[in-house]
């Protein structure tokens, strides 16, 4: 939300007036929704700023140290390596990542009308259990409503859950790790040791995924591609050449088969991969084929539907060697994410209803992207132990905000922040196929519904047709 010399209350009332004029409505869940859309277009994505990059997770003192790093450029920091996250109820039917091949390049968009977004404050429930602001034209700070109903303005946009939100009076130090102990941390810890911040400049890491692991190659089907560590090759496994201006699929998943995708969750220390400690709880680990349990090696996800609150994530098939991935928690299976400011993600998924139980995030599925550094240190727990709170990057692609809703909202959370209250229809009883196009040439990110099959390559005409789809506009400051 743009913060001006006017009071926050005046700004809120003005925002509400805009919503009324725009025929948006307040739902019973406390969120505002506008219209159904088949495309969301983020423009002016990318900012020059800093975040705190974790440099040490000390198991002796239970403290995390960090240093300040700077970033800038088109789509920054979302041009850094990203991991892809899923929360149930969800059934993933297809996932693919494409990179330019043979000179392919996304063109700048022409004459795309950017709708003015209303300024409103809503209460949102999420995996971070946050109450935050949505719908921005310019964002220099974020307003949210705290647990006592008080309006609070911050400069970071959102807050991770505290220890007591994750663990209800549980002394983790007295427990041994189990598969039900996911995302737990100790309730009382030694204060974080503050170090004098230094500044490091990050270069844009256009890191295409690397060759699949041996475990993954065993499950690779004939129509998937194993790529090199430098760039997509000029031919595919079907024997045909990749046309000039086309996009090559570098990662691919269908149930039971995967190429250059590594499935993980937060079950470290329970089943042969990752680690657990009283200080930091469960780390990331390989995910079993059911997506819920841990595993000792990389395994393809089966055709499974995760229940409410259950989560898994996807990294590339390239392991982190040396200092390639920066600092990460000791003892984890560390993999590269998907980097670069020109890339395309394709999803096909179903989000069925889940009315059983009343657990955290009940019947609130979501698909989102995180800076891959976050899960490699600590996705849930102490805020000082990941770069998330200081704005290293999150993008919610498809998120249900309240129990049982059928409206999928998108939002960006970093030093900019922004989104739209237009929504995709939740796929219940059917699947939704969508492409997420990162276009560094004009600083835009497109989320669009698509039809038809996608193969080992995408021709430029297909990609440009996706880019030309009109929909809800979200201009970042």
Structure commentary:
The chain has one domain. It is built from 5 helices and 29 strands. It has helices at residues 8-21, 163-166, 214-218, 373-377, 460-467, and strands spanning 25-26, 32-33, 39-43, 49-58, 63-71, 82-87, 91-100, 120-121, 133-134, 142-145, 151-154, 199-201, 247-254, 257-259, 261-265, 276-277, 281-282, 285-287, 294-295, 311-316, 342-350, 366-371, 394-400, 407-413, 418-425, 432-439, 444-449, 457-458, 472-475. It holds the Pfam family YJL171C_Tos1_C. This is glucan endo-1,3-beta-D-glucosidase. Keywords: Cell wall biogenesis/degradation, Glycosidase, Hydrolase, Signal. It is an enzyme of class 3 (hydrolase).
Key traits:
single chain; 477 residues; mainly beta; 9-stranded mixed sheet; 9-stranded antiparallel sheet; 5 helices; 29 strands; disordered N terminus
Count of DSSP helices? 5
Mind describing the biggest β-sheet? Answer: 9 strands, mixed
Report the count of strand segments.
29
Rg is 21 Å
How many domains comprise the coordinates? 1
Structural class: mainly beta
Helix content: under 10%
**Uncertain stretches of 5 or more adjacent residues:** 1-21, 110-206, 209-241
* Head-to-tail CA distance between termini: 10 Å
Protein name: glucan endo-1,3-beta-D-glucosidase
Region (Disordered): 177-218
GO molecular function, one term: glucan endo-1,3-beta-D-glucosidase activity
Domain Cell wall protein YJL171C/Tos1 C-terminal: 245-466
